[in-house]
Design goal:
14 helices; binds adenosine-5'-triphosphate; nine-stranded mixed β-sheet; 34% helix; five-stranded mixed β-sheet; Rossmann fold; binds magnesium ion; 23 strands
């Protein structure tokens, strides 16, 4: 993409309405525009990152054997009456009446619709295990939408639902989701710590929230500092192996890590003092085993091997896809702007032309641009007629992890400069070398998708 042909409405001033850094930077970088409280348009660069996050989620869901579907945003109230949640859900549900005076709603979550699909088409244990998921917009009429995409009213969520014959099989599905989430967040450059969450009325140990540590997080969290040393990494895992998934769950959840909802000071105080941490965190996902809560009330049963019908065992598992943009920025920025992790960056590299209009500099930039593209990289070429300082400020603000600076002085010796956004380190090299360095840098990102 050439910047002169792109649509990236960068703001010069700090927007007054933004209270936290991610919201401020997303507005300044021209990624989103608020349309109503908690409702946003996604401008091209915001959409690019949103799509990259979705892509990672899809790839990791596929790896775990989960099947994508797409359910409507507008749902019938009758389904929610069957589960009993229509009256329970309260003010957060956006209720709509159609022209025939039928009660509809904009889905805040999808347990009812997915259970309806299941009961219409599955009746034998032979079709299990089954996990269906979607990435779809949700609406929750939050009382205080704030912090930009972090707490919106309309937001994009991955929601997945497992269907299993037995409780043990459903718990394996739970563990499988935990593994796939660890991998997904790491590919986004995030450490998201599974923390024991509140099971609500259902109770039990079988819900974890994934939290990204950040000062601006809305949850208070308590954890054993050893947990931050854990890394899932590129280990190979067989998602069908009960033992392997269970082992990962144990590794990542055996140390103390809880939100204020489940915090237990007596247990916490048994951890050696130097390892006790109190901090704040952003919830970027949650996994939940709830058994037959919906299958019983909605009549989703399967015939088991013994010929008897039993309600199917279920769980639901969410990732806050649009919230993740905010969480990533909160975890990765400096005073100049965003620092995108390589796995989600909107463009892999920015090309800065120091002397726009100079024939040889222009053609060197064009050649570099073409070469990067031919290697499967996506560069943003700042071809504006602007001062170098302004161009640097823009690439820094929008957070591209790498910058290639091209000017007549360097070119005289066949040199350009490759600069890391994260470390600020700048190295002179030939344009060819810069391209091969970037191909190398992005190889792990490509490999992680395989
Ligand atoms: N209003 C929102 N705006 C953006 N993302 C959200 C919002 N509400 C929930 N999410 C994201 O969707 C994921 C799954 O939804 P879930 O039902 O667990 O949310 P929740 O526990 O009600 O979230 P919260 O406690 O933050 O209100 C959450 O982990 C979160 O990342
Ligand atoms: Mg939650």
């Amino acid at each position: 993409m050439r910047l002169t042909r792109y649509f990236m409405p960068v703001l010069k001033e700090d927007p007054k309405e933004a209270q936290i850094v991610s919201h401020r930077l997303m507005l300044r970088a021209g990624m989103i525009k608020q349309q109503s409280a908690g409702i946003y348009s996604w401008l091209p660069m915001g959409l690019k990152v949103l799509n990259r996050i979705q892509q990672i989620v899809h790839e990791e869901q596929a790896r775990a054997g989960h099947i994508p579907v797409l359910m409507p945003t507008i749902q019938s109230a009758d389904l929610w009456r069957e589960s009993g949640r229509y009256d329970d859900y309260g003010e957060e549900m956006l209720r709509i009446t159609d022209r025939h005076k039928r009660d509809m709603l904009y889905g805040p979550t999808n347990e009812e619709v997915i259970t309806d699909i299941f009961r219409a088409h599955v009746s034998s244990y032979k079709d299990l295990p089954l996990t269906l998921y979607q990435i779809q917009w949700k609406f929750r009429d939050e009382i205080r939408p704030r912090f930009g995409v972090m707490r919106g009213r309309e937001f994009l969520m991955k929601d997945g639902y497992n269907f299993d014959l037995t409780r043990d099989a459903a718990l394996h599905a739970y563990n499988r989701h935990l593994v796939s989430y660890l991998r997904s967040y790491e590919r986004m450059g995030l450490q998201a710590i599974p923390m024991r969450a509140d099971g609500g009325p259902i109770g039990g140990d079988y819900t974890h929230e994934f939290l990204v540590l950040a000062e601006t997080g809305e949850s208070e969290v308590f954890y054993d500092s050893e947990i931050t040393d854990l890394k899932f990494g590129s280990r190979a895992i067989d998602y069908d192996s009960v033992e392997q998934c269970q082992a990962v769950l144990e590794e990542f959840t055996s140390r103390y890590a809880r939100t204020d909802e489940t915090h237990d000071a007596a247990i916490f105080d048994q951890i050696p003092e130097e390892r006790r941490r109190t901090a704040r965190g952003i919830e970027v996902g949650q996994i939940f085993y709830f058994g037959t809560k919906y299958s019983e009330s909605m009549g989703a049963t399967v015939v088991g091997p013994d010929g008897n019908r039993t309600p199917v065992e279920m769980g639901s598992h969410g990732i806050g896809v649009s919230r993740l943009l905010g969480a990533i920025i909160e975890a990765s920025h400096d005073d100049k702007g965003i620092i995108w992790p390589e796995g989600v960056t909107p463009f892999e590299v920015g090309i800065v032309n120091l002397k726009q209009g100079d024939a040889s500099t222009d053609s060197a930039c064009e050649a570099l641009y073409a070469e990067l593209k031919s290697k499967g990289l996506d560069p943003l070429y700042d071809d504006r007629d602007e001062r170098a300082g302004a161009k640097f400020a823009t690439v820094d603000l929008i957070g591209l992890p790498w910058r290639i600076t091209v000017g007549p002085r360097g070119l005289a010796n066949n040199k350009v400069e490759l600069t890391s956004r994260r470390t600020g380190e700048a190295v002179e090299m030939s344009p060819q070398e810069a391209v091969s360095r970037l191909v190398e840098v992005y190889q792990p990102v490509k490999d992680a998708a395989l």
